[in-house]
Write the structure tokens for this entry.
Amino acid sequence: MRILAKDIEKNVDSEVEVAGWVHRIRELGGITFIILRDRSGVVQLVLEHAPDLSVESVIRVRGIPVRNEKAPGAVEIPVKTWECLSRASADLPFQVNGRLNRTRLDALLENRVLSLRNLQIRAIFKIQATIIESFSAYLRAQDFTEIKTSKIVSGGTEGGTNLFQVEYFGKKVYLAQSPQFYKQIMVASGLERVFEIAPAYRAEKHDTPRHLNEYVSMDVEMGFIDSEKELIELEKNLLAAVFEAVARNNAPELALWQAHVPDPDAILKSPIIPYEEARQIAQAGTSNRLFDINPEAERLICEWSVRENGSDLVFVNEFPRRHRPFYTYPLDASLTMSFDTLFRGLEISTGGRRQHDYQALLDTLPKFGLKPDDLKDYLEIFQYGCPPHGGFAVGCERLTARILGLANVKEASLFPRDRKRVTP
Ligand code: AMO
């Protein structure tokens, strides 16, 4: 029976079979040392001859593990028999088993089959899996129901400029920018509390380190709230649970990036700053004139939060009406019950309370250049009894990237889509 590299120690002195990729080959005085890599880690194999093998080939071997202080994990397997299950080309575009921090991002993304084998790169996606799992687990424990909604829609929810148009049986439709309207429908349907983790599409024309054209949106929506502050409390607890799970499950992966997650207690004490105050905090740190909270302001506000509060996370609420979509609930004539979440210099989430009053929505639409006919299905939600409600969405890749300190959000996407890239 095949065992994993991580279990070799428990099997010293009894014959085992291991299988995986040839991570490294080294010859020394007529003996060949092979480091074999499987999904659990690595183990050293010892052969008394030089096998005809290239790195990254897939092999299966049998032997009896013995202790050797010099081997990784202090155990190695003198090989009795081996077979090559799949041979790798000797001509690799980069060295998979080394550090890839000097390899161009384009090369890593174009050769995903190989770059994802690198342990440091694989660590990104092990951590991302924990983020998704703990996000879901926390919300389920708070009585939220997981939903999956269509990504083929008839219009935009976040403004009309960055929609991908799709040909659909002779009709023009779009890829969903967000499950915004569907999650609101599900609150009104009586589920009250829902969440969805799914791709969202943005036809952003620019190439920046914070934008993808397809990203994983982690959406939350809940009924019976009075203000965005209840959503902020939920998000603090949710992120604290996510950070706690990453610290518990992914210590080796964090170590490969010399990264750490924030202390969950500090997260629970994260400050909430009204928009105008936040803008002024940022303005005090730059000679550039800040007309809104742009990427530079996000960075400055986060630096302030670390300095003044010791918190990597900061919430900015009470955004002016002009900065928010039509569905946002007003706080007064000019401000809204909305917020952004900034984490280590980057906006990772946006949310707010929604307008649930039918007449108030009808009155708002013209101010956004919208007509009731364009939003017929959406407006229906509010004609048949809808509780006060709100929600938020966290960008999965942005959260992953900020935990690990990645320079570009594309690094946190398995198969990123940007203006030029649709393969692999
Ligand atoms: P918003 O458009 O601010 O809000 O998006 C929410 C979060 O999603 C992530 N995100 C992106 N990540 C990578 N590339 C992109 N192009 C991109 N666009 C957005 C960010 C962002 O903070 N419907 C509202 C949410 C709500 O109110 O519930 C919405 O989609 O992390």
Observations:
- The domain at 113-412 is CATH 3.30.930.10 (BirA Bifunctional Protein; domain 2).
- Residues 409 and 416 are 9 Å apart (CA to CA).
